[in-house]
Specification:
7 helices; alpha/beta; single chain
Length: about 210
């Protein structure tokens, strides 16, 4: 984590390494196993994106996701659809209304496709949830700063923590389940040609959403 902080600092400020004071406080994680996963224009191969895709394709029973915005690329969209189509229970939790109205409008096309494939979509009413987390079965979980939108996945400097310990995965899984129980199931409805066209025009600026 310290190395990631230094790398982001240098990228953002051009501050030489010797001017950055190292973190000297030692901490113990006990039985936890956590992997720091960075991503951004200064990191090769989009590792957070790769982990999300791998996790979705390797899921056997259940995928739980919470994100404030859902304007993904084709890879994430297809991974979730295919997971649902092969019998994985996929729950996607979103704010019913986020603080970004264009992103809310743009997500509708993706949500219709997910629902048609069997993904369960949940809206948190009257809450702007800003959490970003994913739990796959009981073998892997991830939480951090990455939204499931194109800008966050491919342009922004982001960092996620990957959790491999049973206790950490179970804690995050229970937290997501409690969040889902507070949510309302969303059933996307078909739209007319005009609205679909407007959604498509909005998606032309997806990297800015």
């Amino acid at each position: 984590m310290n190395a990631t902080l230094w790398a982001d600092w240098r990228f953002a400020t051009d501050c030489p390494t010797e001017q950055i004071q190292p973190v000297t406080v030692a901490t113990s994680g006990g039985q936890s196993r956590v992997q720091v996963i960075p991503s951004g224009p200064d990191v090769a191969d989009d590792p957070i994106y790769a982990v999300i895709l791998s996790a979705c394709y390797e899921a056997h029973r259940r995928i739980r996701i919470v994100t404030p915005y859902y304007v993904p690329d084709t890879g994430v969209q297809e991974a979730l659809k295919l997971a649902a189509l092969r019998g994985v229970l996929v729950d996607l939790i979103l704010p019913g209304r986020s603080n970004h109205r264009l992103a809310d409008f743009a997500r509708n096309r993706y949500l219709r496709e997910l629902a048609a494939a069997g993904v369960r979509i949940w809206f948190l009413p009257n809450i702007m949830v800003h959490a970003k987390a994913l739990v796959v079965d009981s073998i892997f979980a991830m939480a951090g700063s990455t939204n499931l939108d194109i800008r966050s996945l491919f342009l922004n400097c982001e960092v996620m923590s990957g959790f491999y310990s049973e206790k950490d995965i179970e804690w995050l899984s229970q937290w997501l389940e409690a969040l889902r129980e507070r949510s309302v199931r969303h059933y996307p409805q078909p739209v007319g040609a005009l609205k679909e066209m407007l959604e498509g025009v909005t998606l032309l600026g997806a990297y800015q959403l």
